[in-house]
Amino acid sequence: MSYRHWLTMSACTLLAACGGSSSDPAPTPQPTETGTLSLAVSDAPMSGVTAVGLHLHELVMTDSNGVEHRYSLGDMTMNLLDYPGKLSHTVVDNMTLPVGSYHNVYMTVVQGDGNNGCYVEDGQGRHALQVQDGQLPLMDFSVASGQHYGYTMEVDLYLGLQHDNQYDYSLNHDGMWAVNNMSMGHLLGEMDPQWVAQCEADNAALAPVGSVFTHLAYLYPASVTSMSQMADVSATPAAGSTAPIAVAPLRQDDQGYWYFGMGFLPAGTYRVGYSCLGHLDDPQVDDTTNGSFSMYADAGSVTIDAGTTGGTETVHRCGMGNGGHHGG
Protein backbone atom coordinates (compact mmCIF):
# COMPACT_ATOMS: atom_id res chain seq x y z
CA MET A 1 0.00 0.00 0.00
CA SER A 2 1.24 3.48 -0.80
CA TYR A 3 0.09 6.84 0.47
CA ARG A 4 0.78 10.07 -1.38
CA HIS A 5 0.59 12.78 1.23
CA TRP A 6 0.35 15.60 -1.23
CA LEU A 7 -3.13 14.42 -2.15
CA THR A 8 -6.12 14.48 0.22
CA MET A 9 -7.09 10.82 0.55
CA SER A 10 -9.35 8.98 2.98
CA ALA A 11 -11.12 5.67 3.19
CA CYS A 12 -13.81 5.52 5.87
CA THR A 13 -16.37 2.84 6.73
CA LEU A 14 -19.53 3.91 8.56
CA LEU A 15 -21.25 1.28 10.69
CA ALA A 16 -24.85 1.99 11.77
CA ALA A 17 -27.05 -0.14 14.05
CA CYS A 18 -30.31 -1.33 12.51
CA GLY A 19 -33.64 -1.00 14.28
CA GLY A 20 -32.56 1.29 17.05
CA SER A 21 -30.09 3.83 18.29
CA SER A 22 -27.84 4.31 21.25
CA SER A 23 -27.68 7.25 23.57
CA ASP A 24 -24.06 6.51 24.45
CA PRO A 25 -21.79 9.38 23.40
CA ALA A 26 -19.46 8.68 20.52
CA PRO A 27 -15.90 8.00 21.69
CA THR A 28 -13.53 10.93 21.36
CA PRO A 29 -10.86 10.11 18.78
CA GLN A 30 -7.37 10.12 20.21
CA PRO A 31 -4.92 12.47 18.49
CA THR A 32 -2.14 10.77 16.54
CA GLU A 33 1.22 11.12 18.24
CA THR A 34 3.76 12.77 15.97
CA GLY A 35 7.32 14.04 15.72
CA THR A 36 9.03 16.25 13.16
CA LEU A 37 11.72 15.67 10.52
CA SER A 38 14.12 17.97 8.67
CA LEU A 39 16.38 16.98 5.77
CA ALA A 40 19.21 18.84 4.06
CA VAL A 41 21.75 18.17 1.30
CA SER A 42 25.43 19.18 1.18
CA ASP A 43 28.35 18.30 -1.09
CA ALA A 44 32.10 17.92 -1.39
CA PRO A 45 32.89 19.68 -4.70
CA MET A 46 35.35 18.67 -7.40
CA SER A 47 37.43 20.50 -9.97
CA GLY A 48 36.47 20.46 -13.64
CA VAL A 49 32.75 21.03 -13.14
CA THR A 50 31.01 24.37 -12.63
CA ALA A 51 27.54 23.15 -11.66
CA VAL A 52 25.86 19.93 -10.55
CA GLY A 53 22.11 20.40 -10.68
CA LEU A 54 19.75 18.13 -8.75
CA HIS A 55 16.01 18.01 -9.48
CA LEU A 56 14.22 16.41 -6.52
CA HIS A 57 10.76 14.89 -6.89
CA GLU A 58 9.59 12.90 -3.84
CA LEU A 59 10.63 11.78 -0.37
CA VAL A 60 9.72 8.10 0.05
CA MET A 61 9.72 5.95 3.19
CA THR A 62 8.12 2.72 4.42
CA ASP A 63 6.71 2.37 7.93
CA SER A 64 6.89 -0.67 10.22
CA ASN A 65 3.57 -1.96 8.84
CA GLY A 66 4.99 -2.10 5.34
CA VAL A 67 3.03 0.94 4.15
CA GLU A 68 4.93 3.16 1.73
CA HIS A 69 4.55 6.93 2.17
CA ARG A 70 5.39 9.47 -0.53
CA TYR A 71 5.81 13.19 0.08
CA SER A 72 6.15 15.70 -2.74
CA LEU A 73 9.33 17.79 -2.76
CA GLY A 74 7.77 20.26 -5.17
CA ASP A 75 10.26 19.51 -7.96
CA MET A 76 12.92 21.34 -5.96
CA THR A 77 16.12 22.20 -7.85
CA MET A 78 19.56 23.13 -6.52
CA ASN A 79 23.18 23.42 -7.58
CA LEU A 80 25.20 21.16 -5.28
CA LEU A 81 28.31 23.29 -5.75
CA ASP A 82 26.60 26.09 -3.80
CA TYR A 83 26.72 23.98 -0.61
CA PRO A 84 30.29 22.76 0.06
CA GLY A 85 31.77 21.79 3.41
CA LYS A 86 29.51 22.64 6.32
CA LEU A 87 26.97 24.50 4.15
CA SER A 88 23.73 22.70 3.31
CA HIS A 89 20.45 23.21 1.47
CA THR A 90 17.24 22.51 3.39
CA VAL A 91 14.98 20.10 1.53
CA VAL A 92 12.40 19.35 4.24
CA ASP A 93 11.83 21.62 7.24
CA ASN A 94 9.91 20.37 10.29
CA MET A 95 7.75 17.84 8.46
CA THR A 96 5.21 16.20 10.79
CA LEU A 97 5.37 12.39 10.85
CA PRO A 98 3.44 9.81 12.89
CA VAL A 99 5.43 8.12 15.65
CA GLY A 100 7.13 4.93 14.48
CA SER A 101 10.05 3.43 12.61
CA TYR A 102 10.76 4.10 8.94
CA HIS A 103 13.00 2.22 6.52
CA ASN A 104 13.83 2.15 2.81
CA VAL A 105 14.02 5.94 2.94
CA TYR A 106 15.13 7.85 -0.15
CA MET A 107 14.54 10.91 -2.32
CA THR A 108 13.64 10.42 -5.97
CA VAL A 109 15.11 12.62 -8.68
CA VAL A 110 14.11 13.63 -12.19
CA GLN A 111 16.76 12.02 -14.38
CA GLY A 112 18.51 14.35 -16.78
CA ASP A 113 18.03 14.30 -20.54
CA GLY A 114 20.27 17.23 -21.41
CA ASN A 115 17.50 19.82 -21.24
CA ASN A 116 15.50 18.92 -18.14
CA GLY A 117 16.15 17.14 -14.87
CA CYS A 118 19.54 16.62 -13.25
CA TYR A 119 22.58 17.99 -15.07
CA VAL A 120 26.30 18.76 -14.93
CA GLU A 121 27.98 21.82 -16.40
CA ASP A 122 31.67 21.75 -17.30
CA GLY A 123 33.99 23.32 -19.86
CA GLN A 124 32.16 21.43 -22.61
CA GLY A 125 28.68 22.77 -21.78
CA ARG A 126 25.65 21.27 -20.03
CA HIS A 127 25.22 17.49 -19.90
CA ALA A 128 22.55 15.08 -18.71
CA LEU A 129 23.14 13.56 -15.27
CA GLN A 130 21.81 10.11 -14.45
CA VAL A 131 21.57 9.26 -10.74
CA GLN A 132 21.92 5.60 -9.75
CA ASP A 133 18.47 4.00 -9.45
CA GLY A 134 16.94 7.47 -9.78
CA GLN A 135 17.20 8.04 -6.05
CA LEU A 136 19.32 9.44 -3.21
CA PRO A 137 19.32 6.88 -0.36
CA LEU A 138 18.83 8.06 3.22
CA MET A 139 19.22 6.27 6.55
CA ASP A 140 16.48 4.42 8.42
CA PHE A 141 15.12 6.31 11.42
CA SER A 142 12.53 6.26 14.18
CA VAL A 143 10.24 9.07 15.34
CA ALA A 144 9.24 9.53 19.00
CA SER A 145 6.37 11.70 20.19
CA GLY A 146 7.17 15.41 20.31
CA GLN A 147 10.77 14.96 19.17
CA HIS A 148 12.56 16.61 16.24
CA TYR A 149 15.05 14.79 14.02
CA GLY A 150 17.45 16.36 11.55
CA TYR A 151 19.49 14.52 8.91
CA THR A 152 21.83 15.68 6.18
CA MET A 153 22.86 13.84 3.03
CA GLU A 154 26.45 14.46 1.96
CA VAL A 155 27.27 13.97 -1.73
CA ASP A 156 31.01 13.54 -2.34
CA LEU A 157 31.46 14.25 -6.04
CA TYR A 158 35.02 12.91 -6.22
CA LEU A 159 33.74 9.54 -5.05
CA GLY A 160 30.43 9.39 -6.88
CA LEU A 161 30.49 11.50 -10.07
CA GLN A 162 31.73 9.81 -13.24
CA HIS A 163 31.64 10.53 -16.96
CA ASP A 164 32.47 8.68 -20.16
CA ASN A 165 34.20 9.86 -23.33
CA GLN A 166 30.93 11.36 -24.57
CA TYR A 167 30.68 13.46 -21.39
CA ASP A 168 27.61 11.61 -20.21
CA TYR A 169 27.62 11.92 -16.42
CA SER A 170 26.42 9.52 -13.75
CA LEU A 171 26.22 9.89 -9.97
CA ASN A 172 26.46 6.65 -8.01
CA HIS A 173 25.71 5.90 -4.38
CA ASP A 174 29.36 5.27 -3.45
CA GLY A 175 29.81 8.98 -2.83
CA MET A 176 26.72 9.50 -0.68
CA TRP A 177 25.98 9.12 3.00
CA ALA A 178 23.37 10.44 5.42
CA VAL A 179 24.10 11.47 8.98
CA ASN A 180 22.11 12.44 12.06
CA ASN A 181 22.89 16.11 12.67
CA MET A 182 23.28 15.45 16.40
CA SER A 183 26.13 12.99 15.88
CA MET A 184 28.24 14.61 13.17
CA GLY A 185 30.96 17.23 12.89
CA HIS A 186 32.97 19.13 10.29
CA LEU A 187 36.68 19.05 9.41
CA LEU A 188 38.72 22.12 8.49
CA GLY A 189 42.26 21.32 7.40
CA GLU A 190 45.29 23.62 7.30
CA MET A 191 47.72 22.36 4.65
CA ASP A 192 51.49 22.75 4.93
CA PRO A 193 52.58 24.92 1.96
CA GLN A 194 55.91 23.07 1.84
CA TRP A 195 54.06 19.84 1.13
CA VAL A 196 52.24 21.49 -1.77
CA ALA A 197 55.40 22.95 -3.29
CA GLN A 198 57.46 19.80 -2.82
CA CYS A 199 54.76 17.50 -4.19
CA GLU A 200 54.61 19.55 -7.39
CA ALA A 201 58.42 19.62 -7.68
CA ASP A 202 58.79 15.88 -7.10
CA ASN A 203 56.07 15.11 -9.66
CA ALA A 204 56.93 17.70 -12.32
CA ALA A 205 57.04 14.99 -15.00
CA LEU A 206 53.41 14.12 -14.21
CA ALA A 207 52.07 17.68 -14.45
CA PRO A 208 48.85 18.03 -16.45
CA VAL A 209 48.39 20.37 -19.39
CA GLY A 210 48.97 23.90 -18.12
CA SER A 211 50.90 22.51 -15.13
CA VAL A 212 47.91 23.05 -12.83
CA PHE A 213 48.01 20.18 -10.34
CA THR A 214 44.89 18.89 -8.59
CA HIS A 215 45.55 18.99 -4.85
CA LEU A 216 43.29 16.70 -2.83
CA ALA A 217 42.82 15.70 0.80
CA TYR A 218 41.75 12.09 1.35
CA LEU A 219 39.94 10.84 4.45
CA TYR A 220 40.27 7.23 5.62
CA PRO A 221 38.81 5.16 8.45
CA ALA A 222 40.86 4.75 11.62
CA SER A 223 41.90 1.26 10.51
CA VAL A 224 44.34 2.96 8.12
CA THR A 225 47.50 3.67 10.10
CA SER A 226 50.11 4.42 7.43
CA MET A 227 50.42 5.96 3.97
CA SER A 228 51.09 2.54 2.44
CA GLN A 229 47.49 1.59 3.24
CA MET A 230 46.00 4.67 1.54
CA ALA A 231 44.44 3.75 -1.80
CA ASP A 232 43.19 6.17 -4.42
CA VAL A 233 39.49 6.40 -5.28
CA SER A 234 38.65 2.96 -6.64
CA ALA A 235 35.95 0.35 -6.26
CA THR A 236 38.64 -2.36 -6.11
CA PRO A 237 41.67 -1.13 -4.14
CA ALA A 238 44.75 -3.32 -3.99
CA ALA A 239 45.09 -5.91 -1.24
CA GLY A 240 46.21 -4.33 2.01
CA SER A 241 44.97 -0.87 1.07
CA THR A 242 41.73 0.99 1.77
CA ALA A 243 39.79 3.36 -0.46
CA PRO A 244 39.00 6.82 0.97
CA ILE A 245 35.60 7.50 2.48
CA ALA A 246 35.71 11.21 1.58
CA VAL A 247 37.76 13.43 -0.72
CA ALA A 248 37.95 17.22 -0.83
CA PRO A 249 39.90 19.68 -2.99
CA LEU A 250 42.47 22.01 -1.48
CA ARG A 251 41.72 25.69 -1.94
CA GLN A 252 43.73 28.87 -1.53
CA ASP A 253 42.50 31.88 0.40
CA ASP A 254 43.11 35.49 -0.63
CA GLN A 255 46.62 35.34 0.81
CA GLY A 256 47.54 32.11 -0.94
CA TYR A 257 47.26 29.78 2.07
CA TRP A 258 46.06 26.25 1.37
CA TYR A 259 43.14 24.68 3.25
CA PHE A 260 40.31 22.20 2.77
CA GLY A 261 36.94 21.41 4.30
CA MET A 262 34.90 18.25 4.76
CA GLY A 263 31.40 18.48 6.16
CA PHE A 264 28.85 16.25 7.88
CA LEU A 265 31.21 13.48 8.99
CA PRO A 266 29.97 10.95 11.55
CA ALA A 267 31.74 11.54 14.86
CA GLY A 268 34.80 9.31 15.16
CA THR A 269 38.49 8.97 14.38
CA TYR A 270 39.91 9.16 10.85
CA ARG A 271 43.22 9.54 9.04
CA VAL A 272 44.08 12.17 6.43
CA GLY A 273 46.23 11.78 3.31
CA TYR A 274 47.39 14.35 0.76
CA SER A 275 48.37 14.25 -2.92
CA CYS A 276 48.85 16.78 -5.72
CA LEU A 277 48.09 14.10 -8.33
CA GLY A 278 44.32 14.20 -8.15
CA HIS A 279 44.19 14.67 -11.93
CA LEU A 280 45.53 11.10 -12.24
CA ASP A 281 42.94 9.59 -9.88
CA ASP A 282 40.26 7.97 -12.04
CA PRO A 283 37.50 6.64 -9.73
CA GLN A 284 36.90 3.71 -12.06
CA VAL A 285 40.51 2.48 -11.93
CA ASP A 286 43.05 1.50 -9.27
CA ASP A 287 45.55 4.16 -10.32
CA THR A 288 47.96 3.41 -7.47
CA THR A 289 48.61 -0.07 -8.87
CA ASN A 290 47.83 0.42 -12.56
CA GLY A 291 48.58 4.11 -13.06
CA SER A 292 50.86 6.95 -11.99
CA PHE A 293 48.93 8.16 -8.95
CA SER A 294 50.60 8.14 -5.54
CA MET A 295 49.81 9.52 -2.12
CA TYR A 296 52.35 12.16 -1.12
CA ALA A 297 51.93 12.64 2.62
CA ASP A 298 50.29 11.12 5.67
CA ALA A 299 48.64 14.03 7.51
CA GLY A 300 47.95 11.96 10.59
CA SER A 301 44.97 11.02 12.71
CA VAL A 302 42.05 13.33 13.45
CA THR A 303 39.06 12.88 15.75
CA ILE A 304 35.77 14.48 14.73
CA ASP A 305 33.75 15.53 17.78
CA ALA A 306 30.05 16.23 17.32
CA GLY A 307 29.75 18.33 20.48
CA THR A 308 26.61 18.49 22.58
CA THR A 309 24.28 19.52 19.74
CA GLY A 310 26.20 18.28 16.70
CA GLY A 311 28.05 20.23 14.04
CA THR A 312 31.27 21.02 15.91
CA GLU A 313 34.13 21.99 13.59
CA THR A 314 37.52 20.35 14.17
CA VAL A 315 40.63 22.13 12.87
CA HIS A 316 43.42 19.77 11.78
CA ARG A 317 46.97 20.82 11.00
CA CYS A 318 48.57 18.88 8.15
CA GLY A 319 52.35 18.85 8.50
CA MET A 320 53.37 22.23 9.88
CA GLY A 321 49.99 23.70 8.96
CA ASN A 322 49.66 27.18 7.51
CA GLY A 323 49.74 29.40 10.56
CA GLY A 324 46.04 29.18 11.39
CA HIS A 325 44.68 30.40 8.05
CA HIS A 326 41.34 28.80 7.23
CA GLY A 327 40.31 30.64 4.10
CA GLY A 328 38.80 34.05 3.59
UniProtKB/TrEMBL annotation:
It comes from the Bacteria. This is Uncharacterized protein DUF4382. Residues 1-16 form the signal peptide. The keyword Signal applies. InterPro entries: DUF4382. It comes from Shewanella fodinae. It holds the Pfam family DUF4382. Residues 34-171 form the DUF4382 domain. Keywords: Signal. PROSITE patterns: PROKAR_LIPOPROTEIN.
